[in-house]
Design a protein that fits this description.
Length: about 425
């Protein structure tokens, strides 16, 4: 495995001759290498998609006419596929420079991909990114049969008991009660902006009220947030997707000026709703404990079994899981991570990729580092080729390095213990 970066510390010892003795031979240079990245586990959100509900339903819900999309609800667009290829290529370049992927030619078993089979968009994302990581090389892209529920990405159904339901709903209701008094100003501004843009008189006329009260209910074996915040969050995300899809400025937001700034103003509502719901530990652990456990095993250099019975080998240096924005949020809650971007108002925007890297230090110690990769919103809009440089995310639960990393032993101990405690509960 090559090094990134390669440091050579050359120690030269010059001994002056002493009268009556022979000068000692110079001490030869002693090379020491720098940290070496051994493997990485990546978890990617799918690419740009259309709204998950039919446009006619969105029209009826908002009393506004939204733009039509070239694909069925929730499907990837061609524009989104091309951006995914750019992201995969940039990740491949980064990990080739890091020495994890071969700089030339193909290496059997260098990349393994597992995609959520629930949706077309995640299946295609895994295939596109996997092949873009190592162009022209065979890649093992795998999943359950299309349309099948995959417990790796959401195991909540297996733990759907009255006790768990009560725990989740109690915690969510408590969070909402606290939020009523402490909601950040930018979130309130986002809701007010959604109201002004979509239906200025909606609260008084019986039309959508984006500043109305929030409610938590249990619906179809999962918690559901409804009310003003969730409506604002949906509008914000749909407008961001229209912008990322490269729809004309005057077609987004019904003629509102400076649509890019308006999206930045609206997105805090979406991000806040995600934090309240998706990052709620009582929900994140039952949803994501299988994937979190696989990540913990893989960074330690162990093989893991996929739901179809196949194995991801311990020797696989790059493993990619293709999931959703909710996947990134639940892992953020489990591993205690947080991040934001200056050029992308959605921290889990299309193509955003979370990484867990295993490094071997010069003294032989192994360390784990969490990183996040993204494309800026305008880069997505224009299909701009990118060179990625990750943001390093402190692993505060076990942090022992100046860069926020953990020793592999501490990472394994802390998160194996957390997941075991959840399973006992």
């Amino acid at each position: 495995m090559s090094c990134l970066p390669l440091h050579l510390a050359i120690l030269t010892c010059i001994v002056l001759p002493v009268a009556g003795t022979q000068a000692a031979a110079p001490t030869p240079p002693v090379p020491t290498t720098g940290p070496v990245m051994e493997r990485v586990v990546l978890v990617a959100r799918h690419g740009i998609r259309s709204p998950t509900h039919p446009i006619a339903e969105l029209d009826a819900r908002t009393h506004r006419r939204w733009q039509t999309w070239p694909v069925a609800p929730g499907d990837l667009t061609d524009h989104g596929r091309r951006n995914l290829s750019l992201m995969g290529a940039a990740l491949g370049q980064y990990y080739r420079q890091a020495g994890v992927l071969p700089t030339q030619g193909c290496r059997a078993g260098a990349v393994a991909v597992w995609s959520d089979a629930t949706d077309q968009r995640t299946l295609q994302t895994g295939d596109i990114m996997g092949h873009a990581l190592t162009p022209g090389c065979p890649v093992a892209t795998d999943s359950l049969p299309a349309g099948t529920h995959d417990p790796i990405f959401n195991d909540l159904h297996a733990y759907d008991t009255p006790a768990l339901q009560q725990t989740i709903m109690t915690d969510l209701s408590t969070a909402l009660a606290h939020d009523r008094d402490s909601r950040p100003a930018d979130v309130r501004q986002a809701q007010a902006t959604a109201q002004a843009v979509v239906q200025p008189g909606g609260c008084a006329m019986g039309a959508p009220c984006f500043t109305g009260p929030d409610r938590a209910t249990w619906h179809k074996n999962a918690p559901k947030l409804s009310g003003g915040l969730s409506q604002s969050a949906d509008v914000a995300e749909d407008m961001l997707l229209e912008y990322a899809q490269s729809m004309p400025d005057d077609a987004i937001g019904w003629g509102q000026p400076d649509i890019r700034h308006m999206i930045d103003t609206l997105m805090p509502a979406h991000n806040h709703a995600s934090r309240l719901m998706r990052r709620l530990p009582a929900l994140a652990f039952p949803r994501g404990h299988i994937l979190a456990g696989m990540i913990t095993e893989l960074v330690a250099g162990n093989a893991v079994r996929e739901p179809d019975g196949d194995m991801i080998a311990a020797s696989t240096p790059v493993v990619l899981f293709a999931g959703h924005d909710s996947t990134l949020d639940m892992l953020a809650a489990i591993f205690g991570l947080d991040w934001s971007f200056a050029d992308m108002p959605d921290p889990t925007g299309p193509d955003t990729t979370l990484g867990f890297e295993t490094w071997r230090m010069p003294d032989g110690q192994q360390r784990v580092r969490a990183v996040i990769f993204h494309q800026g919103l305008d880069a997505l809009r224009t299909e701009q080729a990118i060179t990625v440089q990750p943001d390093i995310l402190p692993l505060r639960a076990c942090q022992s390095g100046t860069d926020g990393s953990c020793t592999l032993a501490d990472f394994t101990r802390v998160f194996t213990s957390r997941l075991a405690a959840y399973r006992r509960d």
